[in-house]
Amino acid sequence: MATLTGHTEAVHAVAWSQSGSDFVVSGSKDKTVKMWDLRFLAAANPAPGKKAKQQQKQQKEETSAAALEHRAVDSALYTKKAHEKVINAIAVAPNDKLFATASQDKTIKLWDAATGELQATLAGHRRGVWHIEFSPVERCLLSASADKT
């Protein structure tokens, strides 16, 4: 188990890669987005074997939780200043090539997942954007805003 650290304010949004557990993107009140590569965590903390799993089942829940190795990790692949206000939501495209961030600053931004480079800024909402989601089959992005759209 690991805690991904590095944001300077509350984390408001997280999203997994769509093709597996290769990366996680997080967004914060600090207006930044961070890309985390989780492959190094899997290598450092291999899944427990059958015997270890059986032992965990026999222990009380508190003991099992305490026995797990926990460490704080500040190793984001990149950090980008993403918005002028808090990031409310993050969505990863089905092909994992893009991710989107939505903010209280009334914008949605599209990012290249590999490089963290900004690809586009979508403006048009009159109030903060609270939720975004990519269509699993089409090249569409849905948004929900406090402006009732």
Automatic annotation (TrEMBL):
Region of interest (Disordered), ranges: 46-66
Organism of origin: marine sediment metagenome
Protein name: Uncharacterized protein
PROSITE patterns (UniProt xref): WD_REPEATS_1, WD_REPEATS_2, WD_REPEATS_REGION
Family matches, as PANTHER family: TRANSDUCIN BETA-LIKE 3 (PTHR19854), TRANSDUCIN BETA-LIKE PROTEIN 3 (PTHR19854:SF15)
GO cellular component, one term: 90S preribosome
GO molecular function, one term: U3 snoRNA binding
GO BP, sorted A to Z: endonucleolytic cleavage in 5'-ETS of tricistronic rRNA transcript (SSU-rRNA, 5.8S rRNA, LSU-rRNA); endonucleolytic cleavage to generate mature 5'-end of SSU-rRNA from (SSU-rRNA, 5.8S rRNA, LSU-rRNA)
Keyword line: Repeat, WD repeat
